[in-house]
Amino acid sequence: MIILNVHLTATFFQLSSFAAGVRSVLSSTPLQVLLYLNTWYFAAFYLAEILMFIYKGILLPYPPDNLVLDVVLLLLFLALETLRIFYAWKGNLCERSLSSFVSLFILFPCAALAVYYLLLQTFVLRLEFLLSAVLLCFYGLELLLGVISISAFSR
Questions:
Q1: Which of 97, 93, 88 is nearest to 154 (CA)?
Q2: pLDDT tens-digit series, residues 2-42
Q3: 3-state secondary structure of 23
């Protein structure tokens, strides 16, 4: 009786693992860690940009139209970056290539905005230059790991 019970239990676990379709995990741990770090870094970047805009608006002869444009672009940057990190996070953890592809598509406008804050705004502080350069490094690594992850999900 005990032998039969053990045999039935072992058979049940073999069938349940077969029915569940056991397969390897394809999500990228380095990409997930990079997304986590980028979330915190972008929060610090955004806060620093707001404080630097206050500084530039008070102390520098910043044209009001340009200041409004830069602040509106910063708000757009926040929205795009939030969407990008959300889609990348879900695409990586759920192993969905469409979500990951959407996040990589949104990466290009985010990189363009980072380049704008790196080089093209009216007054660029050294701290802004450094923060934007680090953000672009994050984007480059996420692009590389995202493409590798999409190719792994598509197999």
A1: 97
A2: 444 444 444 444 444 445 566 777 788 899 999 999 999 99
A3: coil
- Extract the tokens encoding 48: 């620093």
pTM over 0.90: no
Query: Would you say 152 and 28 are in contact if contact means Cβ atoms under 8 Å apart?
Result: yes
Q: Let me know: does 64 contact 53? Beta carbons within 8 Å.
A: no
CA 50 to chain centre: 21
| Token pair for 27 | 């999500």
Question: How many angstroms separate the Cα of 61 from the Cα of each of 53, 66, 86, 119?
Answer: 12, 11, 38, 18
Q: How many residues does the structure list for the chain?
A: 155
Per the CB < 8 A criterion, the answer to whether 97 and 120 are in contact is: no
Please say whether the beta carbons of 132 and 117 come within 8 A.
yes
Distance CA 21, CA 51 (A): 52
Spatial separation of the C-alpha atoms in residues 84 and 63, rounded to whole Å? 31
